Amino acid sequence: MTQLIIAEKPAAASRIAQALAENKVVAKKKYQVTYYSLRNKGKDIIVAPAVGHLFSLAQKSGSQGYPVLDPEWRASYETNKSSAFTKAYVNLLKFLAKSADEVIVATDYDREGSVIGYNCVRFLTGKKDAKRMKFSTLTYTDLKYAYDNMTNTLDWGQVNSGIARHYLDFFWGISLSKAAMSAVSQASQKFIKLSIGRVQGPALHILTDRELEIEKFVPKDYWEILALVNLKGKEFEALHKQDKFWDEAKANEIYKKVKDKDAKVSALQIDIKHLSPPVPFDLTSLQVEAYGKLKITPKQTLMISQSLYTKALISYPRTSSQKLPAKLGFKKILQKLSKNPSYSKIASEVLKTSLKPNEGKKDDPAHPAIYPTGELAKGLKPKERKLYDLIVKRFFAVFGEKAEAELTHVEFDIEKEIFVLHGQHIIKKGWIEWYSPYYMGKEVEIPKLKTGEIYHQKTSIIKKQTKPPARYTAASIIKELEKEGLGTKATRATIIDTLYSRGYISGTSIKVSTLGKEMVSVFSKYAPEILSRALTSEFEQEMKEIRTGKVKKEDIIERAKKLLIKICKDFDKHKEKIGKEISEAAIETQKEESTLMRCPKCNKGNLRMIFSKKTRKRFLACDKYPDCKTTWPLPQRGLIKVTTQKCPDCNTPKIGIYSRGRRPWIICPNPDCPSKKSKKN
């Protein structure tokens, strides 16, 4: 009896082989791909890897126009040059399957992993079904358990749900993107790379709504009156009870009345607030927390957490669960963590508790919340180490006691005008101590006061303006997409990344470009279903129901086809207008992206990135040429983008040079920058 176990990636194949081998593992190579041979309970086992998706949906050769509703599954290396390396994995699995009596799928236990495994089974092994290993960590213990308790069939709910998602994403993404590019090409005779997808559209709509709110916002003046009260040697800012004064004359009248007069404690209230421990991380909350505390982007967090999972240091990260079932064995995990000098003290303290985690409401039928496995962490890269520490500390914190904060409310009477001061001081750390340094609560400890006490104060009046709504960040938009039921935990970061790459949005504080706004404007007028949050969310829910057997994948796919045909017919009625409006916006956006700043020499034109067809070089030049002949050189390799950073030496906007697989090189492009002159000297 020979079993072929198909893993999702090479590192996972190695872990599975080491976990299941009764004696030694023999590493072999064919087609330059490593696979493993071993024995377990009298059976010969071959463990071989895929490398993510080996097959993908593609448009049939010769197929023209849109919508594209009859795609075919093809090997990824046949449709994408960057996937050429996957051919070796296809050939290996096909070769090994010939001598296998049984096939076992051991890809990640989610929809995508299920589709990867299913496609390998049906296209490479010639079988219609296979056995299935299910695990949430790549620890040897969990892998052995998964092997001993594998199911005799694939999880068809996950497979069908994943297949439906691939079809819907293909229908929407390919058909609508082709329609948009076709319209622009006819209107401008230019090829402009555009895309619009089933989740991209609604996501861009959300961002554009916020952008328009900001643009339409009209700031309003208001005034605040502050009393800087000296309380036993420390100064605290108390704010007038009215908070905002919209009438300048009234604000000045009160300011003159109270200016530098003594403040009498007229009211004092102290309350104790209990702060519950945090709940375990699901992927979205991990991405939000990592962005806020570690400045790691959601896309990076997903990649790093996947790496930590592959190294068996954490559980499967693509989960929407905030629950940790007791069967995970908290005591064993904590005992392992206690052997790590960085965590030994806290782990020992956690072990003394009842080991009942504070859980959230969200659940995931496939995986628990994210948790550390306790395996020894070594050789981690800086960002891996930071993210791992955050996950470990969060795991500790969910078992902690409630923290207690003393909330102080003080009112000062200054010439019959009431000023208010709020304080918060942690008096019992509880879980906060175990979550250090990631708890960021504001600490304002007010000295012990008594009513009737009088203190000196200095008064100030400050003119302010109301502010527009805050822009979304990469983390907050992912949280918003989850709230709206758009996309999945695993795809949201990629969707936002695509919006960046298409030039629809820019900046860490996300700004929507002219092109991004026009895409929303055009489709709102002529094909609103493309942007519908409700429709997209409805499809997401139905795909979940495919998994539970409430809905058939064929019914969802057929409904999507009919809807897309209607959308494309509506689109074609206005194709000329759509093409003209989008192409004009694309040209304007290209100007925006290529503009660095106002020309420092003539102060009339703008310095813009120019590509010379004659010299085949790019440079910055004033767009008032030939009246102004200012030029600055640029690096000739890599994608260049203007950043929001300013040079501290000359205040010139910095540019980023982006090369695949490397960190961006951020530089000041000003050849006369003082910093460059000092380096030469």
Q: For the report, how would you describe the main beta sheet?
A: 7 strands, antiparallel
Strand order of the largest sheet: 14-11-12-13-10-9-15
What's the level 1 CATH class of the largest domain? Answer: Mainly Alpha
Write down the overall geometry.
Answer: globular
CATH superfamily of the largest domain: Topoisomerase I, domain 2
Secondary structure: number of strands: 24
Structural category: alpha+beta
Averaged pLDDT, please? 93
Instruction: Calculate Rg over CA atoms.
Output: 30 Å
CATH architecture of the largest domain: Orthogonal Bundle
Low-confidence stretches: none
Query: What is the count of structural domains?
Result: 5
- State the share of residues found in helices, binned by percent: 25-40%
CATH fold call of the largest domain: Topoisomerase I, domain 2
Share of residues in strands: 15-25%
Number of helices: 21
| Ends apart, CA distance between termini | 75 Å
SSE layout and pairings?
Layout: E1 2-7, H1 10-20, E2 26-30, E3 33-40, E4 43-49, E5 55-58, E6 72-75, H2 76-79, H3 86-97, E7 102-106, H4 111-125, E8 131-132, H5 140-148, H6 156-188, H7 200-216, E9 221-231, E10 234-240, H8 248-258, E11 263-275, H9 283-294, H10 298-310, H11 330-337, H12 344-351, H13 382-397, E12 403-414, E13 417-428, H14 431-434, E14 454-455, E15 457-465, H15 474-484, H16 492-501, E16 505-506, E17 511-512, H17 514-526, H18 533-548, H19 553-573, H20 575-594, E18 595-598, E19 606-612, E20 617-622, E21 631-633, E22 639-646, E23 653-658, E24 665-667, H21 674-680
Parallel strand pairs: 1-4, 1-7, 7-8
Antiparallel strand pairs: 2-3, 3-4, 5-6, 9-10, 9-15, 10-13, 11-12, 11-14, 12-13, 16-17, 18-19, 19-20, 20-21, 22-23, 23-24
